[in-house]
Amino acid sequence: MDKRKVKFLIGSLIVVVSIAWIGFSSFDESLAYYKTVDELKAMNHNAYGKRLRVAGNVVAGSIERTSSAINFKLEQKGEILPIRYVGKDLLPDTFKDGAQALAEGHLVRNGEFEATKIQAKCASKYEATYGNVGKK
Amino acid sequence: MEVIVSNIGQFCLLFAFCLSCYAMVASFLGGKVGHRRLVDTAERSMVAVCVLVTLTVCTLWYELNVGNFSLQYVASHSNRAMPWYYKIGALWGGQEGSLVFWCWILSIYSLVTVLLNRKKNRTLMPYVVMAISMVSTFFLLLNNFVANPFDLIGVSRAGGPAMPFAPMDGNGLNPALQYWAMVIHPPILYTGYVGFTVPFAFAVAALITRELDEEWIRTTRRWMMVPWLFQGTGILLGAKWAYVVLGWGGYWSWDPVENASLMPWLTGTAFLHSVIMQERKGMMKVWNMILILSTFLLCIFGTFLTRSGIVSSVHAFAQSPIGPYFTGFLLLLLSLSLYLLLTRLDSLKSENRLDSVVSRESSFMFNNLILLATGFAVLWGTLFPIISEALQGEKRSVGPLFFNKINIPVGLFLLFLTGVGPLLAWRKTSFRSLQKNFTLPVVLSLVMGLIFFTFGMRHFYSTVCLMLSVFVVCTIISEFHRGANARRKQGEGYLESLWILTFRNTRRYGGYIVHLGMVCLFVGLAGAGFNKEAQKEMVPGDSLSLGKYTLTLEQIKSANNANYQSATALMTVYKDGTLVDTLLPERRYYKTSDTATTEVALRSGLNEDLYLVFSGIEKDNSKPVFHAYLNPLVSWVWIGGIIFVLGTVICLIPSKQGMARSKVSEKVEVEELAKA
Questions:
Q1: Total beta-carbon pairs less than 8 A apart between chain A and chain B
Q2: Would the pLDDT of B65 be above 80?
Q3: Which one of B95, B149, B187, B419 is CB 3.0 to 4.6 Å from B73, fit for a cystine?
Q4: What's the gap between Cα A79 and its chain centre?
C-alpha cells in the first residue's frame, strides 16, 4: 500500500473513531427504557433508578393542574400508574382524556412516576368513531 | 352519482395495476430480446397508467368534496364544515389516500421520463421502465388490495357481514394539519421521496446493461437533483409547520418520521458531491452506485417507517396491515440491488487514484464520509428501539440528546469542509495557495469570534458555528469576486460579470449559492443556543417579561363558527419600554374531532422571534396560562431554505461550461488555479 493511501486511511479513521466516540459517550446518557404501564408494574423494584419512557392511555378525568405540577394517571391493560408532571414544557394539545401518552422520567419511592417530558400522540390518522353505530 | 364516480375510481385503480404489471414484464422482455415495439407498448402503458391514476385522484377529490361519507376514507378525513383547500389536502391526510398520491406522483415522473427519453438513452430505457413499473406495481397492489381508498364503511375486506352505511358527517381532517404549509408540505416531500425512484431505475438499468459510461451518470445526476430539491424543501416546510403550528417553540425534534425524511436527503447530498468525482476523474464508481441504491431504499424504508407504526412517533400513524408488504418489498429491492452490484463490480473499476490528502478529491471523500456517518447515526438512533428489543428483549430508545450530541460536531465539521473544499485544487494543493486563499477568511472569522466573546457569548457550539459561517461566507464571496474580477478585465461591469459568470457555469456557482443557503441554515441553528422562555398564569392587566420584552395581557375574546370555538388573547408587546406590537395567540376547540389546538402568535425578525402560546386554562382558578419563547436567529433557517432552492434551481439550468466539462478541461483549470 502506498503512503498516500495510508495517510488517507488514517484521516478517515480519525474521523470515524471520533464520531463513534461522541456517539457512544452520549448514548448511555440519552438511553431510556421504553415500557408500557403494565410492563413497568411487572418490573417491580427493578424499575427504580432507571430512566424510563412509559406509554399508556390517559385515564379520563384524571388530569389535575396544581400550582407546581400536573397530575394524571396512565392506564394500560388494567394497570394504572399515577404520574406527576414537573417539566417546564407546555403539554401538547393532543394530551387529553383517553389520549395515548408517553411520559419520560423516573419512578419515585411512593410508587408515583415523576415525568419531565410528556408526548401525546397527535393522531395523523385517528381511528374513526361514528357515534353509536357499531364499527367493523 | 357519487357511487358511479367511486366505481369509476375503483376501476381506474385496478386497470392501472394491470397495465403497470404489463409494462414491467413487456419492457423487460423487450429489452432482453431487443424488440423495440414491445418496449414501445410498455412505455405507452406507463403513459396510460398516468392517465388512469390521475382519474383515480380526481374521483377521490370529487368524493372528498361532495362528502360521500359512505366511503371509509372520506368519512375519516373530511367533513362538511371544512374549506375546499383542506378537502384537497385530505387526499394525503391518511394512509389510503397518501398511497394513491404516491402512485400519482410516480406515474407523473414515469410519464416525464418516458417523454424525455424517446430518443436518448435507448439501451437503458427498457430497464428504466421496468424498474419504475416494478415500484408502481407494488404501490398499486397495496392500493387495490390492502389499503383501498374506495372501501365502504362497514364492509370489511376480510368477508364478514356487509353492513354499509353513511354517517351524516365525517370526522374532518386533523385540525393540526389544517395549516397552509401542511397543504403543500406532503406533496412536496412526496415529490422528493418518489422522485428518487428515477435515479434508482437508471442505476438498475445501467447495471443490467453494463452501460456504465458517462452518459447515464449525467442523466442520473440531473434526475437526482430534482427530488433532492423537493425533499429538502419538504423537510424545511415540515419544520416550518412544526414551528408555527405545534406550539412547542422549536422546529426539529429528531422524531422517527423526521429522521426518515432526512436520511435519503443526506445520502442524496453525498451522491451529488461524489458524482463530481466520477464525472471528472472516473473515481468512486462503486461508491456512487451504492449511494443511489441506498437513497432509494431509504425512501421506501422511510415510507414504511411512517406508515407502519413500527416505531412510536408523534406522527402516530395507526398500526396498519401494510408493514409486512413493505418488509417484503424492501428485501426484494435490497437483494436485487446487491445482486446487480456484486455481479457488475468489474465494470465499475476506478480510473484514477488519490494523489494527496490535501486536495479537492480528498475533501469530497471526507464530505461523503461525514454525510454517511451522520446518516448512519440517525438510522441507528431511529432503529435502536427495534434493535434493542430484538437483541435484548427490552425496548430502549434514545432521545434528541443523542442525535444532537453526535450531529452538532459532525455538522460543524461539514460546515468547515463547505468552506475549505471548493478552494482546494484537484490532485494536490500547495501550501502557498492555501495561504493565499485562506488567510483572509481565517482572520475574519477569528476577529468575529473575538467580538462574539467580548459581547458575552459563551455557548461553545453556537460560537464556533457562527465563526465557521463567517469563514465559509468569506470563501464563497472570494470565489465570486475572483471570477468577476477576471471577467471585468475584458470590459464588463462588476455586477454584469457576476451574472454572466453564474450562468456560464451554473453547476459551480449554483453550488456555491446552495452552500450559502446552508450557511444561513447553520446560522439559524446556532441561534438555538441562546433560546429563552417563560411561562405564567395571567389575567387581563398582568405582565410577563422575557429578555427585553414585556408582554401585557389586555383582554380575552371568544368566538364561535361552524368548524371551531375559539378564545383569543390580546397581548401588547413592549420592547425596552416602547410599544412595538400586538400579538393575538389563540386557542381553538374543533367540534367534529373534539380536539383543542393552539394558534401560535409570532413576531418574527431577522435577529429574533418572539413566539407566544396560549397554553390553556388553569383548572383550579380558571386563569389563562401563557408560554413565551424568545428564539434568536430562527428566521435564518427559512432564509437559508429559500437560498437553497434558488441555488439548486440555478444548478439545474443547463450551461455550456457545466455540461461540456470533460476530463481534459480539468487540466486547464488546474493551471488556472495555479496561476491565481
A1: 155
A2: yes
A3: B149
A4: 18
Grade residue B665 by pLDDT with cuts at 50, 70 and 90: very low
Asked whether the beta carbons of residue A90 and residue B535 sit closer than 8 angstroms, the reply is: yes
- Does residue B213 lie in a domain region? no
In a domain, B622, yes or no: yes
pLDDT-derived band of residue A124, with 50, 70 and 90 as boundaries? very low
Closest CA to B586 of B561, B606, B550, B607: B561
Q: Enter the ipTM.
A: 0.72
Interface contact A128-B171, CB threshold 8 A: yes
Whether the pLDDT of residue A125 is over 50: the answer is no
Among A4, A34, A126, beta carbon nearest to B396:
A34
The nearest alpha carbon in chain A to B413 belongs to: A15
Cβ-defined contact of A8 to B362 (cutoff 8 Å) = yes
Cβ of B247 and A15 within 8 Å? no
Asked if the Cβ–Cβ distance from B398 to A32 is below 8 Å, we say: yes
B39 within some domain = yes
CA distance B514 to B662: 23
Confirm if B60 and B91 have CB atoms less than 8 A apart: yes
At which of B110, B145, B173 does a domain end?
B173
Is residue B661 pLDDT above 60, yes or no?
no
How distant, in Å, are the alpha carbons of B488, B566, B574, B627 from that of B583? Answer: 50, 16, 11, 13
Q: What is the CATH number of the domain that holds B604?
A: 2.60.98
- Asked if residue B488 is part of any domain, the answer here is no
Q: Do B72 and A123 touch (CB under 8 A)?
A: no
What is the per-residue pLDDT across B607-636, written as a single tens digit (0 to 9) for each? 889 999 888 776 666 788 888 999 999 999
Task: Please give the average per-residue pLDDT across B198-212, as a whole number.
Answer: 92
- Tell me, what amino acid is at B431? F
Domain end marker among B609, B632, B655: B632
> Of the candidates B154, B365, B627, which has its C-beta nearest A136's C-beta?
B154
Which residues in chain A (27-86) have CB-CB distances under 8 A to chain B? 27, 29-35, 53, 55, 63-67
Chain B residues whose CB is inside 8 A of the A89 CB are 248
What residues of A are in contact with residue B598 (Cβ under 8 Å)? 93
Interchain pair A128, B76: CB under 8 A: yes
Residues found in chain A: 136
Higher-scoring residue by pLDDT: B170, B572? B572
pLDDT in tens, B438-469: 888 888 889 888 888 888 777 888 888 999 99
Domain total in chain B: 2
DSSP code for B244: I
Separation CA B508–CA B659 (nearest Å): 11
**Whole-angstrom distance, CA of residue B333 vs CA of residue B330:** 5
Which is nearest to B60 in space by CA: B5, B103, B104, B107? B5
